Amino acid sequence: MEKILVVRLIEIDPQATEKAANFDIRIKKSEAERLLTDFGYSLPFAIMCKEYGDDADWVGLTPEDIDEETGLLHESYQTFEIWFN
């Protein structure tokens, strides 16, 4: 039997100046960090970052992207979205 994960109270980013790229949900950096830390690989959606990598493509984040010492994502990562697959 498949386990169902319910994620409630996702904090969206009301300050976002652009529409979400994939017509999904723009979230704050702190919310991306919380979701990756609390739920890890169990999330039923992808947490994407615009600044990750060397090009303009959005890249999905994993719990390994959270710094073990600080519990935070890299300071250069600033734009996050939830993408539903």
Which features would summarize this protein structure in a list?
85 residues; alpha+beta; four-stranded antiparallel beta sheet; 13% helix; globular
Counting H and I runs of at least 4 residues, what is the number of helices?
1
Name the helicity range: 10-25%
With strands numbered from the N-terminus, the spatial order across the biggest sheet is: 1-4-2-3
Round the mean pLDDT to the nearest integer and report it.
82
Shape: globular
- The helix-and-strand class reads alpha+beta
Using the CA coordinates, give the radius of gyration. 13 Å
Unreliable runs: none
| Separation, N- and C-terminal Cα atoms | 21 Å
The count of DSSP E runs of length 2 or more, i.e. the number of strands, is: 4
Beta-sheet strand percentage?
A: 15-25%
Short description:
With 85 residues, the protein is an alpha+beta fold. Helix content is 13%, strand content 15%. It has 1 helix and 4 strands.
Overall description:
This protein has 85 residues and is an alpha+beta fold. It has a domain of 59 residues. The protein is 13% helix and 15% strand. The protein has one helix and four strands; from the N terminus they run βαβββ. The chain has a four-stranded antiparallel sheet. It is globular, with a radius of gyration of 13 Å. The protein starts with 24 loop residues before the first strand and ends with a strand.
